Amino acid sequence: MKTTYFKAINLFSQASTESLDTLSQFTQRHFYKKNNLLLDYDQSKNTFLYVVSGWIKLFKETNDGVEVIVDVITQNHYCGESFMFDATEREPYKALSISDVEFLTMPTYIIKRLIVTDHIFALHFLRATLEKQQHNNNHREHLTMQNATERIACFILRLLDSKKLTLELPYDKTLLASHLGMRPETFSRALKNLSKQCGVHVQGGNINIDHPDNLIRYVYEHCSNIYPCNLH
Amino acid sequence: MKTTYFKAINLFSQASTESLDTLSQFTQRHFYKKNNLLLDYDQSKNTFLYVVSGWIKLFKETNDGVEVIVDVITQNHYCGESFMFDATEREPYKALSISDVEFLTMPTYIIKRLIVTDHIFALHFLRATLEKQQHNNNHREHLTMQNATERIACFILRLLDSKKLTLELPYDKTLLASHLGMRPETFSRALKNLSKQCGVHVQGGNINIDHPDNLIRYVYEHCSNIYPCNLH
DNA sequence: CGAAACCTTGACAATGTTCAATCACTGTGG
DNA sequence: CCACAGTGATTGAACATTGTCAAGGTTTCG
């Protein structure tokens, strides 16, 4: 792969020439259709995965066999960083494409090598990690402070392009429900609530919003943030 | 403060001599009794706080005035890293001592300066951040996958020194309830459950455990981790 | 001792889950 | 082109869990 390719990616853009060379040497580019297993438990332990486009679900199972959504990532997000240090103790996961996707993979030891040898890259990586941390904290707050309807409203708001009144859910409702910490049935009913209470019109995966202000007022009452919280 | 002091702290131990000098110059050491406000919203934005001993609650409020526990930290943990880059957009918090505490504070810009100038320190800091991330992810999983009783059991297990059958809750039950995402009333009832189901004897804040194996079996059924998950 | 904070308990309400049935949509093969 | 299977989405009813409110007990600390 060409080094210029990485120059266009925020996370790598400021890396040294040597780093870019290393990247271009060890990176693989992938294109997958929806519903393919991209990483199994073993692979997740030494693969760094960067999403160029599309959506990927990261998941594992509890000891009694229930699926746990670790994360749902898209464009410009990545996974695999937790195995960079102390590969022991970290819990592996599986990755599944939930839309057609383009993504890059490289061995985690390469990313680690870049971090160790390229200070500037390490700084960018740290910044990205801190941003992810911030997002995690918010997600956690939402799970405890907001009820099902509010969590959905919040998700929709964050998906909404300012000034557009329409959007499409990026993946199916069952997974979205799970990501937001509720059952599909609860999701279905909560979305109906939202429709009544806030003028949100749902047609399959397409959503129309009469007045975003309704949503904003509804969500931010029980949130510690201020609109727009622009968290992915 | 002496530079040797920092040598003994894991996070700082490998920092360069210059870094240690800077630290010793800008660090303040504090001793506070229980129930003191250590940081207000403004201070949290430019203060890095490292806990030497004791417990600290980090919290803020939703827009309708409900308290949100951001984190509860102790020995060898810290807060303030999110304001290191992009001070905008980050949500400030307040810090309250919930036991007698000893802690260090330094301006975030100093930590940032160290990270930028001292590659080795940056690496250690990144590692600490990734560990924190891992812990966050687990906390999030627990909130969605485990019920009230399981969350308490899990917390107790992580507090339990291997081979000791007794422990003391580090701070009051109301706060612990909130940290674990439930109401005090629910906590009280759930703890009673645990007592019956797993042979956990509660006497105020003191807890005795007949057979840790009972607890372990109880918790790890609905968890994706393996005992011991050693997450703080 | 007495006030304040913390904890527990009960009755009840709200919220979310489970299970079963049905419907809608999509892609497949005859 | 249609029948059909498979997946995802919705709905209702019963149930489980957690939250709310009010009251009373306990502990702590000045």
Could you explain the architecture of this structure?
Two copies of one chain form a homodimer. Chain A is an alpha+beta fold and 232 residues long. The first copy, chain A, has helices at 3-7, 17-26, 41-44, 108-117, 119-145, 148-159, 173-179, 184-198, 212-220, and strands spanning 28-32, 37-39, 47-53, 55-61, 67-74, 78-79, 94-97, 101-107, 166-168, 200-203, 206-209. In chain A, helix 6 (148-159) crosses helix 9. The first copy, chain A, is globular and about 55 Å long. In chain A, 36% of the residues are buried. Chains A and B meet through helix 5 of A and helix 5 of B. Chain A binds a DNA duplex (30 and 30 nucleotides) through residues 147-148, 172-174, 182-190, 192, 204.
The pair of chains with the biggest contact is:
A-B, 48 and 48 residues
Strand order of the largest sheet of chain A: 1-8-3-6
Q: Which band does the percent of strand residues of chain A land in?
A: 15-25%
Global outline of chain A: globular
Give helix % range of chain A. 40-55%
Order of helices and strands of chain A: HHEEHEEEEEEHHHEHHEEH
User: Which stretches of chain A are poorly predicted, pLDDT < 50 over at least 5 residues?
Assistant: none
The major sheet of chain A is characterized as: 4 strands, antiparallel
Number of strands of chain A: 11
Q: How would you state the average pLDDT of chain A, rounded?
A: 92
Q: Specify the oligomeric state.
A: homodimer
Overall structural class of chain A, as computed from helix and strand content, comes to: alpha+beta
Rg of Cα set of chain A: 19 Å
Q: What is the distance, rounded to the nearest whole angstrom, between the alpha carbons of the first and last residues of chain A?
A: 28 Å
Number of DSSP helices of chain A?
A: 9
